[in-house]
Amino acid sequence: MAFLTVENPFMLAHLMARSASYPLVYRSAPGNALFSPGLRQGTPAVLILSLLLGIAGCAPSIAPFSSRAYEQAVDLKIDTLRLIERAEEPYGKHSSRIEALQIRLLKAREYARGRPHNDITTRQWEIMVDSDGFMAGGFLSRWAAEDSLSWTFIQEASLQIESGFDTIIRLESGKTRNK
Question: What average pLDDT does range 119-144 have in this prediction?
Answer without folding.
Answer: 98
